[in-house]
Amino acid sequence: MKRRIFLTLVAATTAASATMLAAPVAQAADEQIKIGFIVKQPEEPWFQDEWKFAEIAAKEKGFTLVKIGAPSGEKVMSAIDNLAAQKAQGFVICTPDVKLGPGIVAKAKADKLKMMTVDDRLVDGAGKPIESVPHMGISAYNIGKQVGEGIAAEIKKRGWDMKDVGAIDVTYEQLPTAHDRTTGAADALVAAGFPKANIIMAPQAKTDTENAFNAANIALTKNPQFKHWVAFALNDEGVLGAVRAAEGRGFKADNMIGVGIGGSDSALNEFKKPNPTGFFATVIISPKRHGEETSTLMYDWIKDGKEPPKLTLTSGMLATRDNVAEVREKMGLASAK
Ligand code: GLA
């Protein structure tokens, strides 16, 4: 009897220590995966949302996410070194300058880190996309077309004579996705009968609201002939700059149709204002796919050696203040706020 109790105790203790040993080992295996998520403009709601969705992936898969804001080339390079020093195995990046492409690729290689890009695709010395780096971006030209079509439909609905309407085209030509977006918007407007000469280029020095505001102000000052205005840009922030500049000159909701791209807080806050503003609509794109899916793809690559697709282009949906909740729901973004 005594002997049986003794044996049972030994067995129980062995089993217990085996589980105690097994648990930390399994957890450690998960914890060992560390992924960086570097963004060019951490203060922009779009990038905050990307990070938020990347965190969701990190929680679900059990990896560590390291979020780094890198608004300059120098910061990008030190961020990559920093990730290597922390023993990360890979990173997802939206670079502050796509021309840093070859340098970023070389740095990642030297530090033995896997990399994929999001939003802004790296280019080589000749300005061609670096196709060897997996990338997820938006289908820029088509989304731009959705913007232009949305503006044209609203001009027609309001019964404006197109010859009296000026279009502020907030441009940022050094970024290919920005060029494609605003070109798509301008092409769609012209296809709908909008006079090409009424599209006023307003180059912004940086892709934020303040710089778009300054650029739009110049366009407005130089073109006092128009009775109404419309505006488009690469993102919501750019259109907001144009809308604020127009307001300053008396062009309010009745005389301004601004359509952005994004659908994060910059746009949502505008729609929440009690009275409509000139910010009429936005094409909502998916920070869920760009944050959660990219970091999951990186995780699978590190864990199982499965490389992400070389190119994924995501789509968007036009939303106004009237149907924004419905569109966010359709895009799987409703529960995110
Ligand atoms: C660029 C823009 C951002 C956002 C993303 C979406 O990076 O600067 O504002 O529109 O593209 O891919």
Topology:
Layout: H1 2-31, E1 34-39, H2 45-61, E2 64-69, H3 73-85, E3 90-93, H4 101-110, E4 114-118, E5 135-138, H5 140-158, E6 165-171, H6 176-191, E7 199-203, H7 209-222, E8 228-232, H8 236-248, E9 256-262, H9 265-272, E10 279-284, H10 287-304, E11 311-314, E12 317-320, H11 324-330
Parallel strand pairs: 1-2, 1-3, 3-4, 4-5, 5-11, 6-7, 6-8, 8-9, 9-10
Antiparallel strand pairs: 10-12
Alpha-D-galactopyranose is lined by residues 44, 46, 94, 119-120, 137-138, 177, 207, 234-235, 261-262, 285.
Main attributes of the structure:
11 helices, six-stranded parallel sheet, Rossmann fold, disordered N terminus, 19% strand, 337 residues, alpha/beta, binds alpha-D-galactopyranose
Overall tally of domains: 2
Q: Using the coordinates above, name the CATH class of the largest domain.
A: Alpha Beta
Number of β-strand runs: 12
Look up the CATH topology of the largest domain: Rossmann fold
Residue stretches low in confidence (pLDDT < 50, at least 5 long) are: 1-30
Overall pLDDT, averaged? 92
- Hetero ligands: alpha-D-galactopyranose
CATH architecture annotation of the largest domain: 3-Layer(aba) Sandwich
Helix content: 40-55%
Q: Strand arrangement, largest sheet?
A: 2-1-3-4-5-11
Keywords: Periplasm, Signal, Sugar transport, Transport
Subcellular location: Periplasm
Protein name: L-arabinose-binding periplasmic protein
Domain Periplasmic binding protein/LacI sugar binding: 34-310
Describe, in short, the structure shown.
This protein is of the alpha/beta class and 337 residues long. It has helices at 2-31, 45-61, 73-85, 101-110, 140-158, 176-191, 209-222, 236-248, 265-272, 287-304, 324-330, and strands at 34-39, 64-69, 90-93, 114-118, 135-138, 165-171, 199-203, 228-232, 256-262, 279-284, 311-314, 317-320. Alpha-D-galactopyranose (GLA) binds at residues 44, 46, 94, 119-120, 137-138, 177, 207, 234-235, 261-262, 285.
